[in-house]
Specification:
About 35% of the residues lie in helices and about 25% in strands. The chain has 21 helices and 25 strands. The protein has an 8-stranded antiparallel β-sheet with strand order 3-2-4-1-10-9-11-15, with helices on one face. Strand 18, helix 13 and strand 19 form a beta-alpha-beta unit. The radius of gyration is 26 Å and the shape is globular. The relative contact order is 0.08.
């Protein structure tokens, strides 16, 4: 989730850009840059690292001008380097672009542009936009002839034509030295907000960057373009039709604004999950049953030669791996051995020839996971990383990398990273299955169709948050809570239990439902809350029998089931509903109510939700 800032008005742009970008630092970033337009010329300064480094090394004192754009980048294409930092310019330096999101077809566009003589200076998808706009401004002669040839083309028309060639989810902001009276912005899913001042107009990816200058904002919606001038902003659809909307007055304080109006980062990130799911799948699936994984380089022959997969991770990432085991075994028909990274490195593992080691880590810096990777590699395994951070140690050490594209996650307790790990593992298993011939194109297409409905169904679950809030408020006083399930329900129950203990400090255990009678049933007393996940149809009746065991000991059963399950209400005290989906995909929806329950229990108990005691976001020591 990159930070975007823009300014056009009567004041010096640079201090305003830097102040806005600092107020967006909470979003996380790995590089920063600014472009300022003054005296008919654009000056660009950018660097890998933090804003403080940009200020130290980039000679910002000499950047004067009243028009500018700035950016903090969270890498998705190209590792964090000075060259890959934004803004990006065209061949002439007359056009600069900043961008948040993903251009799905940038490889094809880059090849076409290079064939026309355009020279690329970075590995990013963003740079193709600058060159596309250059071509539109010059009638296709930009790389060879430079700007200024032919009749004048308005910047907004050039941008409209350029984005018409790009596929993906993005927000882009464009500035041209040949048209210094405007900044052009387009939103296609990624957020953009306009700030309206006196004789000045601002632009940002989030409201906190605007609040010291104005509280009157316009929200650019998907498929809209904005043309900013010192006098204000005009909006239109990408088809050219006008858009008229009244400004919104922001009443949030700065701290609330950083969290999108939510009281904590964790609940903000829980609500970002539908978008995160969509971002993870973006450009990687089609409805005909095909999977395309950028960064995954194994060949079809290598996929067919695999004899086993080892999955290693810690904490939440390991719970995602347990779900991934099911996908790999059932779809790709490969034996899978999941092992905690802290255990694998000391167990003298038996890795056969043809082993793929799948290492999962949000940060890509988890010490135990990195050590487990070294252990697997020393025994001949090919390493595939599932991670969120481009250029992380894990990404650099792996043969293949599958980025989950969750964006920065600030709260210590993971939410959206878990969901995107699940989808990443679905993508991996489908790709391997198709290459190995263990699934038909039709079956893959059916799974993909269900996957593409997950973002909308996740949003539907979130609309029922009040139900979980009320349940949490009633049960927050309990000191022991249990979670049970079978198969994939058990894997999801483990993550639900972890979320509760992490932030509420309530003792919680997750159990395979069939194991209750082997000891833990002794802990179930009258009124003990027991969450029973009941989404796996092939073990449905078995799980109902386990629910009856709990009921017979006086436990309170909170069942989590599909909305079309009419039977479950006869067996449970409370039923939490989720939209029906393929059973294999159910963990991605089932976990959301459990995240909400954990959050609201912690809220009622007055805990520090974003930074729970004794825990850290990235565990970089053994």
């Amino acid at each position: 989730m990159c930070g975007i800032m823009g300014y056009i008005g009567r004041r010096e742009a640079l201090p305003i850009l830097l102040d806005g970008l600092r107020r967006l630092e909470y979003r996380g970033y790995d590089s920063a840059g600014v472009a300022v337009l003054g005296n008919g010329h654009i000056e660009v300064r950018k660097t890998a690292g933090k804003l403080s480094r940009l200020e130290e090394v980039a000679g910002l004192a000499h950047l004067g001008g009243t028009v500018g754009i700035g950016h903090t980048r969270w890498a998705t294409h190209g590792v964090p380097t000075d060259a890959n930092a934004h803004p990006h310019a065209d061949c002439t330096g007359h056009v600069v672009v900043i961008h948040n999101g993903i251009i799905e077809n940038f490889f094809a566009l880059k090849e076409q542009l290079a064939a026309r003589g355009h020279v690329f200076r970075s590995d990013t998808d963003t740079e193709v936009l600058a060159h596309l706009i250059e071509d539109e401004l010059t009638g296709g002669a930009g790389a060879a002839a430079g700007n200024g040839s032919g009749p004048r083309v308005l910047l907004e028309d050039a941008v409209r034509s350029a984005v018409g060639q790009a596929r993906g989810a993005y927000a882009i902001v464009v500035m041209s030295s040949d048209q210094p009276d405007r900044i052009v912005a387009v939103r296609q899913i990624s957020p953009l907000i306009i700030g309206l001042g006196e004789g000045e107009t601002l632009l940002a990816s989030d409201i906190p960057a605007l609040l010291t200058h104005t509280r009157d904002v316009l929200v650019i919606e998907d498929g809209e373009m904005a043309v900013l001038t010192p006098a204000g902003a005009t909006l239109q659809r990408l088809d050219g039709s006008a858009v008229r909307k009244a400004p919104i007055r922001v009443t949030w304080n700065a701290e609330m604004a950083e969290k999108g109006g939510h009281p904590h980062f964790m609940i903000k990130e829980i609500h970002e999950q539908p978008q995160a799911l969509q971002d993870t799948m973006m450009g990687r699936l089609d409805t005909e049953g095909q999977v395309e994984l950028d960064g995954v380089r194994y060949t079809t022959a290598q996929a067919r030669e695999l004899t086993q997969v080892w999955i290693t991770a810690c904490g939440t990432a390991f719970h995602a791996g347990l779900v991934g085991r099911w996908y790999l075994e059932h779809w790709a028909r490969i034996p899978v051995e999941p092992e905690l990274a802290s255990e694998l490195r000391y167990r003298d593992p038996l890795l056969a020839v043809g082993t793929l080691g799948v290492a999962i880590s949000q940060s890509g810096e988890t010490a135990d996971t990195l050590a487990a990777v070294r252990e697997m590699r020393s025994r001949g395994a090919r390493i595939l990383a599932v991670t969120n951070v481009v250029g992380s140690t894990l990404a650099r050490d792996a043969d293949d990398v599958l980025y989950i594209r969750a964006g920065p996650e600030i709260a210590v307790a993971s939410s959206k990273a878990y969901l995107t790990m699940l989808v990443g593992l679905q993508l991996l298993a489908l790709d391997l299955a198709l290459r190995r011939g263990t699934i038909t194109g039709g079956a893959a297409a059916a799974i993909i169709q269900e996957m593409k409905m997950l973002p909308a169904k996740a949003a539907e679950v979130l609309r029922r948050e009040d139900e979980m809030r009320l349940l949490a408020e009633r049960l927050a006083g309990h000191e022991h809570v249990f979670f049970i399930g079978r198969g994939l329900d058990y894997a999801a129950a483990m993550e639900g239990s972890l979320k509760l203990k992490e932030i509420s400090y309530v003792h919680s255990e997750a159990l395979a439902a069939g194991e209750l009678k082997h000891g833990t049933l002794a802990l179930i007393t009258r009124g003990t809350p027991v969450f029973a996940l009941v989404t796996q149809r092939h073990v449905y009746e078995k799980t109902l029998s386990n629910i009856q065991e709990v009921k017979a000991r006086g436990g309170e059963v909170i069942a989590l089931a599909y909305e079309n399950d009419a039977e479950i209400a006869r067996h449970a005290d409370v039923v939490v509903r989720i939209p029906a989906t393929a059973d294999a995909l159910a963990p991605a929806l089932a976990i959301i109510p459990l995240q909400l329950f954990a959050y609201h229990v912690a809220r009622v108990r007055g805990n520090d939700i974003d930074q729970p005691r004794n825990l850290a976001k990235s565990v970089t020591v053994e």
